Amino acid sequence: MAKYHMIGRGDRVGVAVSGGKDSLSLLQTLHELREVHGGDLVAISIDEGVAGYRDEALAHAKRVTARLGVEHKIVSYKELFGFSLDEALDWKEERDVSSCSFCGVFRRRAIDEAATRAQVTVVTTAHNLDDYVQTFLMNLLHGDLSRLGWLHPAYQGGSFPLKRAKPFVEIYEEEVALYAYSTDIPFQSVSCPYMHEGLRSEVRDYLNTMEATHPGMKNVLFNSALDVISRYQDTEEKTSIPCSRCGRPSSSGICNVCRMQEEIEHHLDGTSRNSTRTQQPEDSRVPARPLSQGAKTET
After folding, report:
1. CATH superfamily of 12-276
2. Whole-model pTM?
3. Of 32, 50, 69, 221, which sits 20 to 30 A from 275 (CA to CA)?
4. Any residues with CB less than 8 A from the CB of 208 and at least 6 apart, and which?
């Protein structure tokens, strides 16, 4: 954290806590540091509305924050956007965008909103070395070069109003898992039902294979990523303009959150109308106009 100037003296630190092993490990680590150095710590959780999966994770988060005595704030997609993730993503066959892409866009905005409500000055996330190099490679494969600046271990600017810090960025996922296991941090038993729709699963498997064959490959890619992203840190800020709807930074006049929200609401509105037509009781329908004299009925 000192190496990348992640947290300063007097910062009120928000910890994005999903309820998984990584975020709970980060929360516990920062809690121990706070006891030594002081400072405020707030756990921030986002309830996307994924039945079973997020329910279990939030239960873990509530239990650990209560044990540590850490303030815990929860905001939901339903509250912020008017729909849960399950409601928003039930039309897989009709869309080209993966579930992870939708969720990622809304989740970033939800964390910003929760952090603002919690009045924190920096948001920490539990992205580990594996997460980092996966995201870097995915951005290259998608051609999202303007977003590479977001990957700085302590990024501030562009689409993020608060500094985003990644204290676990140099730690392998298996090492975080070992820490969680050795300190009795709970592990989730339910996987996200949408996790295999996006590119990340394939990239994860590829990098794990490369690491097994060439030990240290992920760490080499991490250092290469740091060199590359240093050249793209200011790209988004230079090209962004205010969203015409919410005022947040965007690259095309309307931000991804507003664009995707409109797309989902259009789908939900159409689903609601179809459901109403299908389920409407016979006696509640508008009666047909009286037949004019001499008109015939068709059988």
Report:
1. HUPs (3.40.50.620)
2. 0.83
3. 50
4. none
- Strand ordering across the sheet containing 154-157: 71-76, 40-47, 12-16, 122-124, 160-165, 154-157
CA 201 – CA 134 distance, rounded (Å): 9
Neighbours of 281 (CB within 10 A): 6
Say if residue 288's pLDDT is above 50: no
24-73 pLDDT, tens per residue? 999 999 999 987 777 899 999 999 999 888 999 999 999 999 999 999 99
DSSP string covering the chain? -TTTT---TT-EEEEE--SSHHHHHHHHHHHHHHHHH--EEEEEEEE---TTHHHHHHHHHHHHHHHHT-EEEEEEHHHHHSS-HHHHTS-GGG-SS-HHHHHHHHHHHHHHHHHHHHT-SEEE----HHHHHHHHHHHHHHT-GGGGGGGSTEEEETTEEEEEE-TTTTS-HHHHHHHHHHTT----SS--TTTTSSSHHHHHHHHHHHHHHSTTHHHHHHHHHHHHHTTTTTHHHHH-EE-TTT--EESSSS-HHHHHHHHHHHHHHHHHHHHHHHH--GGGSPPPPPPPTT-----
Q: How far, rounded to the nearest angstrom, does the alpha carbon of residue 297 sit from its chain's CA centroid?
A: 58
Cβ(153)–Cβ(4) below 8 Å: yes
Most trustworthy range by pLDDT among 100-114, 122-136, 147-161 = 122-136
Amino acid (1-letter code) at residue 177: A
